[in-house]
Design brief:
single chain, 128 residues, mainly alpha, 63% helix, rod-shaped
Length: 128
């Protein structure tokens, strides 16, 4: 945002305190009891909004309008790819080596690993 000169910020703070009938002796208590929780709530709201935007851009998260999210078997991922995926990968490598068109490779990949359909089925702009 815009930088506000210290003198102007001081004037804004004084106006804010006056609007809330805060006397000089009660300023610290008001800031701790009222302003700090407001600031915390604003920070939480900002974080949630940012995370919502990140989630919607994350290709590995299911559409936010749906009620379930993709589960991950981290043990299986740690232990390495499934054997069938290794074979599909080898076939994709061979197709790339043969110069097969990218859309044909994607069609083969989706046909071989149907869970990838949602990942690759969306339309892409030329710039992508």
């Amino acid at each position: 945002g815009t930088r506000i000169p210290p003198k102007a910020r001081e004037q804004q703070l004084q106006q804010f305190l006056d609007e809330h009938n805060v006397k000089p002796e009660g300023e610290q208590e008001f800031m701790e009891r009222v302003v700090a929780p407001w600031a915390n709530q604003a920070a939480i709201e900002s974080l949630m909004a940012d995370d919502y935007e990140r989630m919607n851009r994350d290709e590995d998260v299911v559409d936010a309008g749906k009620s379930s999210f993709r589960s991950n078997d981290f043990g299986a991922k740690r232990d390495g790819p499934r054997e069938d995926l290794k074979k599909v990968g080898e076939q994709v490598d061979a197709k790339v080596g043969e110069g097969v068109a990218a859309d044909e490779i994607l069609d083969f990949l989706i046909g071989s690993v149907p869970e990838l359909k949602g990942r690759y089925a969306k339309l892409s702009a030329v710039s992508e």
